[in-house]
Write a structure and sequence with these properties.
Putative enzyme related to lactoylglutathione lyase; 128 residues; VOC_core; Glyas_Bleomycin-R_OHBP_Dase; globular; 3-stranded mixed beta sheet; 2,3-Dihydroxybiphenyl 1,2-Dioxygenase, domain 1
C-alpha cells in the first residue's frame, strides 16, 4: 500500500506556544486553520488544501538552505505577492531573488520563523 500523503511535521522549539501562534497568525498554518475551502475547522488539525508536495533529499553539501539545518519547510501558497505584503506589514523580513523563479517551477520567497528556521514560500505555476 502506498503512503497517502504527509501526515504531520513535528519539530522542537524553544517556545512551542509562541511559535504555534506565529505560524497560525502569519501563515495560517497549524491546528484549527483551514486552507481547503471544502474542509471544516478542527481544533487539532490544519486542514490543508490538496496539491503537489515535493519530498526530496538534498546532498549534504547543498547550499540551498542553511548548512546547520537538516531540513527546510516549503509552504505552497496561492498569492505570493499578497502574502509577502502581509508579512512585510507585520515586520517580517522577506527574501526574494529573481534567479529563484522559473516559469516551469513557479515563484519563491523565503522568511525565517522567530527561532531562525528558514521557510520557503512557493507559488506553483498556473499550469503544472
Amino acid at each position: 500500500m502506498p503512503v497517502l500523503g504527509m501526515g504531520g511535521l513535528f519539530f522542537r522549539a524553544r517556545d512551542p506556544d509562541a511559535l504555534t501562534r506565529w505560524y497560525r497568525d502569519h501563515l495560517g498554518v497549524g491546528a484549527g486553520c483551514v486552507s481547503d475551502p471544502q474542509a471544516q475547522p478542527n481544533e487539532w488539525l490544519w486542514m490543508a488544501q490538496g496539491g503537489p508536495t515535493v519530498f526530496t533529499p538534498f546532498r549534504q553539501d547543498s547550499d540551498y538552505f542553511a548548512a546547520d539545518k537538516a531540513f527546510m519547510i516549503n509552504l505552497r501558497v496561492s498569492d505570493l505577492d499578497g502574502l509577502i505584503a502581509s508579512l512585510e506589514a507585520a515586520g517580517i523580513a522577506v527574501i526574494t531573488k529573481p534567479e529563484w523563479d522559473d516559469p516551469l517551477t513557479g515563484r519563491f520567497a523565503r522568511i525565517h520563523d522567530p527561532e531562525g528556521l528558514a521557510i520557503e514560500l512557493w507559488q506553483p505555476p498556473l499550469t503544472p
